[in-house]
Write a structure and sequence with these properties.
It is a single chain. The chain is mostly beta strands. It has one domain. The chain is built from 1 helix and 17 strands. The strands form 4 sheets. Strands 3, 6, 7, 9, 12, 14 and 15 form a 7-stranded antiparallel β-sheet that branches. A hairpin with a 3-residue loop joins strand 4 and strand 5. The chain is globular, with a radius of gyration of 20 Å. The relative contact order is 0.20.
Length: 264
């Protein structure tokens, strides 16, 4: 991950912007339900360059949030489609939205922190979408430390930041005390064009049954998704009077992707 962070930072330049915007925030459930913003970046991209990145912390300056959660890095970015030297997402003809954190630790009392990254300005050819989805934990202390990381995706109206609406939930993967990965294809219906995608991490540790001195971290995870639109194929209706009513619609389309491992 560090290599790509440095490469992306070096290549971003004041070039014409697209409508895409990425915003990051958090909710410390130890303190309540308020969501705090960490920053927002509008896109700046050339035809072959990186879209954008948001890095709320800089290298060697850890970020401390809420009741004592710590992170070396939190990253959200939109990665160009296949076909240029900067691609590093899921591949294919569409942009990839990535959210990641590393070197994270829980406060002494444990609890749950929820990290949000919203991508506003996603576009597809149809409101019927699939979302190839790759997520993993790539840092986790050894043993049973009651640490859980859940990665979730929501598809919402473009104006909605930090969407957590259960009716807009597309899917989730959950990892508990393990280094693991998950590849799946989610489905959703975009509420319009363009729309927003919110990726959410729930990073939690229950320390109530752990001995004093049990590890509070070091935890890292990433997720990536690519929205792909699919047109509905309409089958012609029978001739009037045949006695067979209606139209039949079938969802068609296929999307291939490749999994890319984020370096810690």
């Amino acid at each position: 991950m560090l290599k790509r962070l440095l490469l992306t930072t070096a290549l971003i330049a004041p070039v014409p912007a697209f409508a895409d915007t990425v915003t990051v925030g958090y909710q410390d459930l130890n303190l309540g339900t308020q969501i705090f913003g960490l920053g927002s970046v509008a896109s700046a991209v050339t035809a072959t360059g990186p879209i954008l990145q948001l890095l709320p912390t800089t290298l060697n300056q850890p970020l401390f949030l809420g009741s004592g959660w710590g992170f070396d890095q939190i990253l959200a970015m939109v990665i160009p489609q296949t076909g240029n030297m900067f691609s590093g997402g899921l591949g294919g003809p569409n942009y990839t939205f990535e959210f990641a954190f590393n070197n994270a630790f829980a406060p002494p009392q444990g609890g749950t922190i929820r990290l949000f990254a919203t991508w506003q300005g996603a576009n597809t050819t149809s409101n019927n979408i699939t979302l190839p989805f790759v997520t993993a934990t790539d840092e986790m202390p050894a043993g049973n430390n009651n640490i859980t990381v859940a990665s979730s995706v929501y598809v919402c109206d473009e104006s909605v930041l930090f969407c957590f609406d259960p009716t807009r939930f597309a899917g989730q993967a959950v990892f508990h005390d393990q280094l693991a990965s998950s590849n799946m294809t989610l489905t959703s219906i975009a509420p319009g064009q363009p729309f927003s995608i919110t990726e959410v991490f729930d990073f939690a540790q229950n320390r109530s049954l752990l001995p004093p001195g049990a590890p509070q971290g070091d935890v890292g995870a990433f997720m990536e998704t690519t929205p792909v639109g699919h047109q509905m194929s309409q089958v012609p209706a029978p001739i009037i009077g045949s006695g067979i009513p209606g139209l039949v619609a079938a969802l068609i389309g296929w999307f291939g992707w490749r999994r890319r491992r984020v370096a810690a």
